[in-house]
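Students often ask why we bother encoding 3D structure as a string. The short answer is that it lets us treat folding as translation between two languages. Here is a chain of 197 residues written in the first language.
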Amino acid sequence: MSMFNAGSRELQERFDTGRMADRIETLLVKDVVGDNERAFIERVDMFFLATTDADGFPSCSYKGGDPGFVRVLDERTIAFPSYDGNGMFLSLGNVLGDGRVGMLFIDFAHPNRMRLNGVATIDPDDPLLPTWPEAQLVVRVAVSQVFPNCPRYVHRMERVERSPFVPEAGLPTPVPDWKRMAWAQDVLPQGDPARLG
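And here it is in the second language, the structure alphabet:
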């Protein structure tokens, strides 16, 4: 089954890229994570996660952590933690509803990017949960497609500072300023360290 839809084919015909697209699909799109893809996934410290809501609207979110926070469990499965956020659970709510996800991994220091598509699941009792400090949930993705993506428009950047909010074992995680604002105080979850009373 081709990864291209009627709209893709229409544009490929218009710009005479159908042969190139077919070649890329044949040579580079895989349904397993190989050694090179594993090394790339496990060295990056962020990715973008695309999901679809119940009305068919796409949603895209940023996920960050320390290098290696996304783990390749085997050639067909990856996993990542869900840390404390704003409590909206837009992406993970979509995962519970539909499950299909698109992931875009980017290395800005050495311009490179890779896409991974699959079906995500969430098990509140996932045995990996305790292996990520302060993780609320673990998301596992059954890989259906993984492929490199042209890096030529990736701007070269360097990390200036690591986020102090990425949980680390044995270290207290700071409270974000927005949780201390008056509008948030009375609606914070019980047990949230930002609650003032």
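Translate back mentally: The domain at 30-163 is CATH 2.30.110.10 (Pnp Oxidase; Chain A). Keep this in mind for the problem set.
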